[in-house]
Write a structure and sequence with these properties.
- The chain has 388 residues and is mostly helical.
- It has one domain (30-385).
- The chain contains 17 helices and no strands.
- The protein has helices at residues 2-24, 35-52, 58-67, 73-80, 84-109, 119-122, 131-147, 159-174, 179-196, 202-205, 208-219, 221-238, 248-265, 276-283, 301-328, 333-352, 361-379.
- Helix 7 runs antiparallel to helix 16 (333-352) and helix 11 (208-219) crosses helix 12.
- The longest helix has 28 residues, at 301-328.
- It is globular, with a radius of gyration of 21 Å.
- The two termini are 35 Å apart.
- The relative contact order is 0.14.
């Protein structure tokens, strides 16, 4: 975390220097005129406004606002990357490092000890962060390795990125336990099938995610067990007994229920930045379970924003995500589907986790969304995408 924070700061500082230099020379910075960048700054402005009326302490409100400081990576990267070649180079570094993570995960699965992986993670074949984060990152990697296989081939045959894509897919189905990442993968497979299917047959491509889920359920006992347990955990929650607190799904459903109660109270402005934990405690009558007492988010980004900043804040978040899809409509095919696939992974991740608020995985999405936007922008021949 410390290393990532240092590099984030360096990226933002270099971007600030480049921006000041451009302003001093009277040069316009085209990146700042793009809709996703404008909406990124709007998100930060709304979060800052939410501090003013937050029901949480000033320290908690400022801490939450600081968590979203990673959003500054988006305009910073758009300022710093000034050519398609730079975007491709950035993505190739990503490809190499993420390939290393996937390969290490397989080595751990086969019992090969790796000195750079702590024992606490080795048992679950997790190399980086947690099984939840790594599963989501692996789903994004599989999607990008497929759609950008030409760029990731390093002027060789495309078998390498395709092989690593397959390794990532199998890693998610047979090795990692992160259900969020597995659902993200299914969404990515759906988009890949949509792209590969002729326009007249594309309604059939909608069945691809269902087929992929069915095949995974049939072939992987681990995958099957994880999703059967979800159904059982939901039933326990519906029974309204305290035993739901012993399951991941039950805790999430309880967080979401309490969030909806808080939203119903203040649907317009919300309770302010950083106020979710306070509201959760209030609706638990000050007696949350020991396992959830320290929870600071509902493991669902959209409900998190609506609780803090009202329905309008949540809609602004959705509009911000949609702006990346809107930009991608003009990208060349491979770049377009790469961007849309990562966005789909992001949306799914936000539906089951606070994927933007959380460290590491939130940094991942902000960084890659920005780099993919730069790649698409400079790959497009449209004049509106040329850099000033």
């Amino acid at each position: 975390m410390a290393g990532i924070s240092i590099f984030k700061l360096l990226v933002i500082l270099f971007a600030a220097g480049a921006l000041l230099t451009a302003m001093a020379k009277g040069r316009p910075v085209a990146a700042l005129r793009e809709l996703p960048v404008k909406l990124t700054l709007a998100l930060l402005a709304v979060l800052a406004l939410g501090i003013v009326y937050s029901s949480a302490s000033s320290a908690e409100a400022l801490s939450t606002f600081g968590k979203y400081g990673k959003l500054l990576l988006i305009p910073a990267i758009w300022i710093l990357i000034q050519s398609r070649e730079q975007a491709v180079t950035s993505l190739r570094f990503y490809f190499v490092t993420q390939s290393f993570v996937v390969i290490c995960s397989w080595l751990l699965f086969f019992g090969v000890p790796l000195p750079w992986v702590p024992a606490i993670r080795s048992a679950s074949s997790v190399v980086f962060s947690s099984y939840l984060d790594q599963a989501i990152l692996t789903a994004g990697f599989a999607a990008l390795a497929w759609h950008l296989r030409k760029e990731f081939s390093f002027r060789m045959d495309q078998w390498l990125p395709v092989a690593l894509c397959l390794l990532a897919v199998l890693n998610l189905v047979f090795v990692l336990q992160g259900r969020s990442g597995q659902v993200c993968l299914i969404a990515a497979i759906g988009l890949a099938a949509w792209q590969a299917t002729p326009p007249k047959l594309r309604p059939i491509a909608l069945l691809a995610p269902v087929a992929a889920f069915g095949v995974a359920m049939a072939m992987s006992a681990q995958f099957n067990q994880r999703y059967v347990s979800v159904v059982n955990e939901i039933r326990v929650f519906q029974a309204k007994t305290d035993s739901y607190k012993n399951s991941s799904s039950g805790e999430r459903l309880n967080y979401w229920h309490k969030s909806l109660q808080a939203i119903a109270e203040k649907p317009v402005l919300g309770h302010g930045t950083g106020a979710w934990q306070q509201q959760y405690w209030r609706f638990e009558n000050g007696k949350p379970s020991v396992a959830t007492a320290q929870a600071k988010n509902p493991h669902q980004e959209y409900l998190f924003w609506a609780t803090q900043l009202g329905i309008g804040g949540m809609l602004l978040l959705i509009l911000w995500q949609g702006s990346f899809a809107w930009q991608a409509r003009n990208y060349p095919t491979s770049e377009k589907y790469a961007a849309l696939s990562l966005l789909a992974v992001f949306v799914v991740a936000c539906s089951f986790n606070s994927a933007l608020y959380d460290g590491l995985v939130g940094d991942y999405f902000c960084t890659l969304l920005a780099v993919l936007a730069c790649l698409g922008r400079y790959s497009s021949s449209a004049p509106s995408h040329e850099h000033s």
